[in-house]
Amino acid sequence: MNINIKITKMNEEQQNALLRLFSRLSLSLKIDIFTNQKKIFFKLKEKNSDVDLSILTYCALILSIENYANEKNDFEKLRISDLDKNQILKFTSNKAKLFISKQARIQTKRDKLLKFWAVVKTLKEKENFSFRQICDYLKKYHKLDVAHSTIYNLYVELEK
Questions:
Q1: How would residue 80 be classed by pLDDT, with cut points 50, 70 and 90?
Q2: Any alpha helices (H) in the chain, and if so which ranges?
């Protein structure tokens, strides 16, 4: 059995899923995860003194990402009426960070869409494609997954 699987109690597929989640997070959330990772690393080092430090660092990162994911799931299930003041502050802070990361992702999709704007304009004006059809076209031929409403909003903003 692989030592990191033994320490994290997760198979490789679960670890990769957590790493994919980590790659989609904003920089501030990644920094928070790394801060937590340092704490976990020292706990793992005490328990597993015979294990290579690089393996412990990796395991600490995986466990820190898992803690973030579990915390996120717990917060999504909570009702604000059941929380005290400190929990509400933490909940609000996490929701704000999540909102900011989603806005950053939307902005990058918008920027990617601008690169294909000549294609969008041609499909809309010359080929009379609907925004849903343009969305499907971009997904199929350019591997750009954006909502038809995003295309519409940008079209209205730029062309009108």
A1: low
A2: 3-8, 12-24, 27-47, 53-77, 85-115, 117-125, 131-142, 148-159
